[in-house]
Amino acid sequence: MENDEPITKLKKKNKYTSVKLNDYENINVRSIYNQIVKDIEKANKKVYKTNNIDYWVDKYISSTIRNGRDISELTLKSDEEVLVNYQKWLKKNQPSYLDIYKHIEGGKKVLNQYLEEVSITKTKFNKPPSKNTISNKYRRVKGFFNWISESDNQFPYNMLKMKGWGQERNIEKLPPAVGIEDMKKLINWMDENRENIYEKHFIPILRMLLITGCRIGEIVSMKIEDVDIKSKTWNFFMKGSWRTIKLDSETLWNDLDYWLFDKKGKVRSDKEYVFHLEYHRKGDKDGKGGGVKKNLLKHITGTGVAHKFKRVILTLGLNPKLTPHSCRRGFITYMLEKTDGNVPLIAQIVGHKSWEMVYRYNRARLPKERTTIDIGEVLRYE
In whole angstroms, what is the distance from residue 22 CA to residue 15 CA? Predict the structure, then answer.
């Protein structure tokens, strides 16, 4: 400035006023002051939000993709239920821990206190929750903080890992395994109904359940990009590890033709999932309500497959307690017999983490020949 005179030509306060200082009489000081106060409050709230567990929970339960994987609506709903209840408990019992950064030092102690209290609190059924329920709450809260650690390196990964909240396993509650005779009847049913429009969508899924030992959730969410057409293999990441399944069964590959290829024989590019939502519905007595239900943006649900599986089981007169997971148990039993009880090998094939300890003593690799059950072997089984 010259002669100690202020610069007044085009100087202005961005956002708050466009009036030149020369026209200071026209500046609405009160209005600008009120706006500045609002902006300061807004900024303070934003800073507070990032420290507050409410902010992170809202962000977490609205994230439909985590670690590059799609999160189902059921998982999001379950996460929300568990985390909201944890928030409520914190507000009542440990309000200082609404600041997520407090968990870095004392999170284990507080979470343990919460779980112990929940474990002795009666549910609507007038009894304490099962160990499985408590374990589920623990795993979801721990998973939430693991997710935060990916965005903020102040949070160590698995910082809330604790012993003593493992899952309760009740063998009697597990579904029975599909036996050889069950498998034979299911195979014959598939062969007889391959051209049945009401069953064609279900048959390739049932065949995969029987001969791959994969979980129902893994199969229905199978993506086209994960299938190597040339080698006929399916490579996917699930439960913390990569799996490779050979789809070298000619019958299975024929079943998958419609789901993988278009009419010109090219890999389909109009959808993401192999088993998109599509099935034929039977009409009523008057022929109403039938037709095709189709949505290329979604995949067939595990619940829908389970209902269809149950109807087939009842139609064939098999054990009504059988479920899609029974196919996985049957696969494991069958493969253990075929490999003379090679537990580490089968653990690798089915992605069974409960056998991790066995890996430390045996570094068996996947077999080059097969990772699936040979249907022909089953039918010839004596």
Answer: 18
pLDDT tens sequence across 132-155:
889 889 999 999 998 988 888 888
Angle at 289 between CA 286 and CA 295, to 5 degrees: 160
User: Cα separation of 366 and 20, whole Å?
Assistant: 77
| Per-residue buried b or exposed e for 310-338, using 16+ beta carbons within 10 Å of the residue's own CB | eebbeeeebeeebbbbbbbbbbbbbbeee
pLDDT of residue 259: 95
Q: How far apart are CA 307 and CA 47, in angstroms?
A: 48
Q: What is the CA radius of gyration of the chain?
A: 29
According to DSSP, residue 354 is labeled G
Threshold 0.70, pTM exceeds: no
Residue given tokens 């939502």 in the structure block = 277
Of 100, 126, 110, 99, give the one whose Cα is nearest residue 162: 110
Q: CA–CA separation, 57 vs 140, rounded Å? A: 11
Number of other CB atoms surrounding residue 155 within 10 Å: 20
For the CA atoms of 319, 324, 327, 328, what is the dihedral angle to 10 degrees? -140
Q: Domain coordinates of the chain in residue numbers?
A: 53-172, 175-273+300-379
Placement of tokens 């199969």 in the chain: 219
User: pLDDT of 38-71, one tens digit each?
Assistant: 766 665 555 446 788 988 999 899 888 887 777 8
Q: Read off the tokens for 168.
A: 């309760």
List the structure tokens of 284: 């009523």
Structure tokens at 344: 């580490």
Q: Assess contact for 277 and 295: CB atoms under 8 A.
A: yes
CATH architecture of 175-273+300-379: Orthogonal Bundle (1.10)
Distances in Å between the Cα of 64 and the Cα atoms of 67, 76, 218, 276 are 10, 8, 17, 18
